[in-house]
Amino acid sequence: MNPLDDQLDRLFRSAAQSSAGHPVSAPFYGLETRVMAAWLAGQSVETGFWDMTLLVRGLIVAGLIMAVSFWPVLKSTQNSTEGAANPFAEYLQLTDSTISSDDAP
Amino acid sequence: MTDAEVAECLARGREGDEKAILELFHYMYPHVAKLVQANLPARESAEDLVQQVCIKVMAHLNQFSGKVPFLHWVSRIAVNTCLNQIRHEKRRPEVRLADLSEEEAKVVAHLATSRGELDASDHVASKELVDKLLGALRPADRLLMRLMYLEGRQMDEIAGLTGWNRSLIKVRAFRARAQLRRRYNLLMKENR
Question: Which domains occur in chain B, in start order?
């Protein structure tokens, strides 16, 4: 092994023993309160998110019900407007048939 | 606290039991403090970081799925928070022999002249010397060296904590170790 690597390893081993013996102090003043506040905020965000999801789902279902219930009305309106789309259609058809019958020998 | 006890605390917490959440906090706090202190030498910012990690954990407690042990999940949040924090730190300049304290210089001299392990009385100076040497590395490399050599964590564990894959860890470790060796060599040359 490279002597430098050996020295570095010994240095790290010694430093690791210092880190291992480092005592952990108690939570500092006010941390508990802040942590609890964060948890409560997380809870409310969660609830808010759930409410939003519920609202979106409700809107989708309401939209579907509206579409289904308006479908027959829309269909009938579309049919009537197709007929009325060209008001001269019937007149032109009648004229055409008259002309063709006049030309007949 | 066992996994079952953690799960019970979480269930109680979901029902709004604040005592259960406090129990969880007191369970994870020493672990978080130790991780943060190990990865960030400056104590003042370590306190801020402990608070940041604890708040992050508590705010996202509902996202804990229970697929991994609770402390692993907490560790990952702690390590990522430390990594984000130390990314903003600048690299310190090269370590010179003149910058070392008397105890640290004694450690360097001991390492150069003796093949034996360092005395228990040298542990603190060794830690400070290591901190100085690591300070010159890039933040991610510094974190990796700490996890590997000071905390003695295995590759899989580091991958779990940092989210890095094994090959990235190997490459980073090799590069960081080479840089450390080069810096340490400079110190040794000055020591002669």
Answer: 3-87 (1.10.1740.10), 97-191 (1.10.10.10)
